[in-house]
Specification:
Layout lengths: L1 E7 L4 E7 L2 E8 L4 H11 L1 E8 L8 H7 L1 E4 L9 E2 L9 H13 L5 E6 L2 E7 L4 E9 L1 H10 L21 H27 L4 E5 L3 H8 L8 E3 L3 H11 L4
Parallel strand pairs: 1-4, 4-5, 6-9, 7-10, 10-11
Antiparallel strand pairs: 1-2, 2-3, 7-8, 8-9
Helix pairs in contact: 1-2, 3-7, 4-5
């Protein structure tokens, strides 16, 4: 028997299949079709599923999925053993909640700073006792490039360059690269340093679509030994919620 996990984000839908804590399959799609889900259900003998979504619209395949498996909808009450101290839990992004649940599952008894690098960059801290108090939300990598282009009349839309390591640019393109990528680098190290000052053994967990890029930005920093790259952190958190929830 297996669990099907579906994470519907702003840009992509991520799907995973777990048997207990073992990740059997993971994939992402710009749009998902019912046939894909049903094939996974048959292939892995899925008996239950969980959906987390940041969108309001209801996908056409949901009612059919409910007829095939025990389907749960991830919500703020499904804390899977963590102590959620967020003042407005009903407004907390479900991806943020799933990420800290995943961190607590993977690193129990450890202080963790979860940095999810997706459409937005989120910073969330959970302490060694499983207390989650909140964090920070910042524009993501591509959002920053798009904003510079959208809100100005002359700046071009460019893409990130993983090889750009200079302090400043010597033309418009490299100046934008310097501003965005160095800006994120200094933001990352600033947040990490602030938390690390109080928790010297803090785990720094990178997740999300740009996590590998962020790992590159931090590879020569003093925090490199504490960095854990967990690209499936949110999916693992959702899987943990199917096994232990308060709903």
């Amino acid at each position: 028997m297996a669990n099907l996990v579906i994470d519907i984000g702003n840009t992509l839908t991520k799907i995973a299949v777990f048997r207990q804590d073992e990740l059997l399959h993971a994939e992402h799609y710009s749009a998902i079709e019912a046939e894909v889900l049903f094939n996974l259900i048959d292939q892995y003998q899925v008996t239950q599923a969980i959906i987390s979504s940041v969108k309001n619209e209801i996908e056409s395949w949901r009612s059919a999925l409910e007829k095939k498996v025990d389907l749960k909808y991830f919500n703020a009450r499904m804390t899977a053993g963590i102590h959620n101290q967020y003042k407005t839990p009903q407004t907390l992004g479900l991806d943020r909640l799933a990420a800290v649940i995943g961190a607590n599952k993977l690193y129990p008894g450890k202080d963790c700073l979860v940095i999810d690098a997706g459409t937005c960059i989120t910073y969330d801290w959970i302490d060694a006792e499983g207390n989650y108090f909140g964090g920070s939300i910042s524009p993501g990598l591509n959002m920053r490039y798009k904003a510079l282009n959208y809100y100005t009349g002359a700046l071009p839309l460019i893409s990130a360059d993983a090889g750009f390591e200079y302090t400043y640019g010597n033309d418009t393109t490299t100046s934008i690269l310097s501003g965005v990528q160095n800006g994120i680098k200094y933001e990352l190290t600033g947040f990490i340093q602030s938390y690390h000052k109080d928790e010297p053994e803090l785990n720094i967990i990178l997740s999300g679509g740009d996590s590998i890029f962020f790992d590159t930005l931090l590879k020569n920093s003093i925090f490199a030994p504490y960095i854990k790259n967990e690209p499936y952190l949110v999916l693992k958190g959702l899987n943990a919620a199917t096994q232990n929830n308060n709903d």
